[in-house]
Design brief:
CATH class of the largest domain: Alpha Beta
Radius of gyration: 22 Å
Largest sheet: 6 strands, mixed
Shape: globular
Strand content: 15-25%
Bound molecules: flavin-adenine dinucleotide
Number of helices: 13
Number of domains: 2
CATH superfamily of the largest domain: FAD/NAD(P)-binding domain
Helix content: 25-40%
Number of strands: 22
CATH architecture of the largest domain: 3-Layer(bba) Sandwich
Structural class: alpha/beta
């Protein structure tokens, strides 16, 4: 299928209409290229996905927050389109201990000092020559620090709630050397009143996007690129591939010639994590209405540890629970009803058996989503940060790569995806303006 009759302008195909693909396509189109985006899904945005199921409450099933609003390129766009933003605050939080009672300030201080001591142990591990998993460091530290049974349980909570939920990788897979190698912007975390989707919609404006085109093959030679989908074939001078790391790992898209060895090694070695969301909507809030974050230390180390309340920020009686790492993967196999029952079991242990059933729930399964196969990438044991540069490296001056996983210092984020698209578009511009 020829997508253009204009032979003057360079033609560029962009695979994937997530933030990386949309940002690349937008910049190239503005620079005068003829751009066509091929997207497997019916919807745009990829891991940006605002659900409109509750008409009065657009909620994000993928990314929610612009992390660190100061200096973040997404804040600049949000301001330019006058998108209304809200701020959740980590200092507005409550922590429930294993007995389900609110932790006293003494107990919270103890939890914080344990978390700090573990962070120091990880920091020391980062100075050793041989890398270990975050869990291996935790296990060794638990023994050397002679943690009591109660503190071992607190440590499990710290791993689950504060490491796996943030980095999405299982603690046994996260590299102690590199898990926290992403840069952070300063400032509060901000979320969109109408959902992150407004940003994807803005970037998608005026673009030519073919939806429901599942790319199967990317073939290139010194004359150009051919992309085959389940519905047709497209040719161009060059292509920008923004497939999620999970999709690249699965090998469901074939490259011919085969990808260089360094890129294949990076695809194998980098980790694709899981973070899932479960929104529960109630008639009215039965939890404190002045906090944004609710933390729970489960008595046996497993369970729902992190919740966000939308009461204070948005006036909605909605709780959002997270599941990450292996627990997140395991939970995907359960039915919606079983996931809600599991979440409600935790909430009942905190707030009492009498709390009502939710009116409705919205649940994600990013690990089994065929066009994501995970939530975002992490630095796994055995991977090196430089592998992200290998993942990003263009092939043959014809196939360029973008996507959050290709960003050495901005992986796992929406701003990283956006910036990767800008980088790939600039690479194309440099290659084809000669
Ligand atoms: C639950 C969750 C919470 C998150 N929270 C945050 C947060 O609060 N803040 C933050 O900054 N980041 C967050 N992130 C990360 C952020 O959403 C991602 O880093 C970013 O959206 C990735 O964009 P991308 O363009 O690289 O990939 P994607 O958005 O995945 O885009 C890739 C596109 O390729 C398409 N595709 C896949 N396979 C094919 C194929 N064979 N053919 C054609 N098209 C294909 C996909 O459908 C998709 O549209 C979160 C992610 C998740 C899942």
């Amino acid at each position: 299928m020829a997508y253009s009759t204009n032979t003057e302008r360079r033609k560029i195909l962009v695979v994937g209409a997530g933030l990386a693909g949309l940002s690349a396509a937008q910049l190239l189109q503005q620079s005068g290229y003829e751009v066509l985006v091929l997207e497997a899904r019916e919807r745009l945005g990829g891991r940006i996905w605002t659900s409109q199921r509750w008409a009065d409450a657009p909620l994000d099933l993928g990314a929610t927050w612009i992390h660190g609003a100061q200096g973040n390129p997404l804040s600049v766009i949000a301001r330019s389109i006058s998108a209304a933003m809200l701020q959740t605050r980590y200092d507005r939080s409550v922590t429930y201990g294993p007995t389900a009672l609110v932790m006293s300030s003494k107990q919270e201080d103890h939890l914080d000092s344990l978390a700090d001591a573990f962070a120091r142990a990880l920091h020391k591990a980062q100075k050793r020559d041989v890398d270990q998993s975050v869990r291996a460091v935790a296990d060794a530290w638990s023994i050397s620090a002679r943690l009591s049974r109660q503190d071992q349980n607190l440590l499990r909570f710290i791993l689950l709630g504060r490491y796996e939920t943030e980095y999405a990788g299982d603690a046994s897979a996260l590299s102690a050397h590199w898990y926290d190698d992403a840069r952070a912007f300063p400032g509060e975390d901000a979320l969109f009143v109408k959902g992150f989707g407004v940003l994807a919609e803005y970037l998608a404006r005026d673009l030519r996007i073919e939806r429901n085109q599942v790319v199967r093959n990317v073939n290139w030679n010194n004359r150009g690129v051919q992309v085959q989908t389940d519905r047709g074939e497209f040719s161009a001078d060059a292509a920008i591939v923004t497939l999620p790391l999970g999709v690249l790992k699965a090998g469901v898209v074939h490259f011919s010639p085969a990808l260089p060895a360094a890129k294949s090694r990076a695809i194998q070695a980098l980790g694709m994590g899981v973070l899932n969301k479960c929104y529960l909507r109630f008639e009215k809030a039965f939890w404190p209405d002045d906090v944004d974050w609710l933390e729970h230390v489960p008595p046996a180390g497993l369970g729902w540890t992190q919740w966000v309340s939308f009461v204070r920020v948005a006036g909605l009686p909605v709780l959002l629970g997270f599941n990450a790492g292996q627990q997140g993967r395991d939970m995907e196999a359960l039915s919606d009803a079983a996931i809600v029952a599991s979440a409600m079991q935790t909430l009942r242990s905190i707030y009492g058996a009498q709390i009502p059933e939710p009116l409705d729930a919205q649940i994600t399964r990013w690990g089994s989503d065929p066009f994501a196969l995970g939530a975002y990438s992490f630095n796994a044991l055995g991977a090196q940060p430089a592998m992200r540069d290998d993942l990003a490296a263009p092939v043959g001056g014809r196939v360029f790569f973008a996507g959050e996983a290709t960003m050495r210092r901005d992986f796992s984020s929406a701003h990283g995806a956006f910036l990767s698209g800008q980088r790939a578009a600039n690479q194309v511009t440099q290659a084809y303006s000669r």
